[in-house]
Design brief:
By secondary structure, the chain is an all-alpha fold. It has a domain of 54 residues: Orthogonal Bundle (434 Repressor (Amino-terminal Domain)), CATH 1.10.260.40. The protein is built from seven helices and no strands. The longest helix has 13 residues. It is elongated and about 105 Å long. Keywords: DNA-binding, Transcription, Transcription regulation.
């Protein structure tokens, strides 16, 4: 212990970890009043439509006007009536249920129901699977 100098006591406080005040703490009324008393510069701004949902349901915007002016019919394509009749007839000729046909083509039974009722949006890939499973041509000329 020959090379060690005298031992001194350091009496200054050491702050190990002090978190900076969060945004909510800075906006707190007590913090704002303390800053005013200390003479700090305080800036307050009123936010437009703060705490309301007016922006989402405001009056007519440019997009709304464009949609109102648009007269084009925007409907999805549906299954043609001849396709749904051919599908139903081919399935009944094979004595299959909708669920059995759906399982055969790895689709949900709801897909077959939509095709037979005409509510489905035609998908050529599914129609091709149906044609292979039923062994008949469903679209076009027989």
């Amino acid at each position: 212990m020959a090379g060690i100098g005298p031992i001194r006591q350091d009496w200054e406080p050491v702050v190990v970890r002090k978190k900076a005040p969060t945004a909510a703490a800075k906006k707190d009324e007590k913090a704002v009043n303390a800053a005013r008393r200390a003479g700090a510069e305080i800036e307050s701004t009123k936010k437009y439509n703060a705490g309301t949902n007016k922006a989402a349901s405001s009056g007519t915007s440019l997009n709304t006007k464009r949609l109102d002016d648009d007269t084009e019919n925007l409907a999805h394509e549906r299954v043609p009536s001849d396709l749904k009749k051919n599908l139903m007839q081919a399935r009944l000729d094979k004595k299959m249920t909708q669920a059995q046909l759906a399982q055969m083509i790895n689709e949900k039974p709801q897909v077959i129901q939509e095709y037979e009722s005409g509510k489905a949006i035609p998908n050529q890939q599914i129609i091709g699977k149906l044609e292979r499973a039923l062994g008949t041509k469903l679209r076009g000329k027989k």
